[in-house]
Amino acid sequence: MATTRKKGMGIKTSVKSGNFRKTKAGAGMTKKGVAAYRRANPGSKLKTAVTGKVKKGSKAAKRRKSFCARSAGQMKKFPKAAKNPNSRLRQARKRWKC
């Protein structure tokens, strides 16, 4: 018999739950949300956003560069969100300093 996987993230995805930031506050997951996700998904390597200053070439700088590249692709895929400065995508990119 095959095992079935749960759909979704395994955590509450509302802003009220405290797991996610409001759009105006930068849109991403909170520390609490990341901790909840890692409890629900053992072995996960999910981390919070890189928001501070980073040394060039450091692991954090590489994570930021990777996120910015991925989210730039999302900007192309969702032009409506890309044009709206208050979209979760644009707010998250701003928080990550893309």
Describe, in short, the structure shown.
With 98 residues, the chain is mainly alpha-helical. The chain has two domains: 11-48, no CATH class; 51-98, no CATH class. It contains four helices and no strands.
Total strands: the figure is: 0
Q: Note the gap between the termini.
A: 46 Å
Integer tally of domains: 2
Tally of separate helices: 4
Mean pLDDT: 87
Kindly state the percentage of residues in helix.
40-55%
What is the 3D form? globular
Q: What are the segments in which pLDDT stays under 50 over at least 5 consecutive residues?
A: none
Largest sheet: none
Radius of gyration, Cα only, in angstroms?
Answer: 15 Å
The proportion of residues in beta strands is: under 5%
Structural class: mainly alpha
The helix-strand sequence is HHHH
Structure description:
The protein is mainly alpha-helical. The chain has two domains: 11-48, no CATH class; 51-98, no CATH class. Helices cover 44% and strands 0% of the residues. The chain is built from four helices and no strands. It has helices spanning 31-40, 59-77, 79-83, 88-96. Helix 2 runs antiparallel to helix 4. The longest helix is centred in the C-terminal third of the chain and has 19 residues, at 59-77. The mean pLDDT is 87.
List the helices and strands and how they pair.
Layout: H1 31-40, H2 59-77, H3 79-83, H4 88-96
Write a concise keyword list for the protein shown above:
single chain; 98 residues; mainly alpha; 2 domains; 4 helices; globular
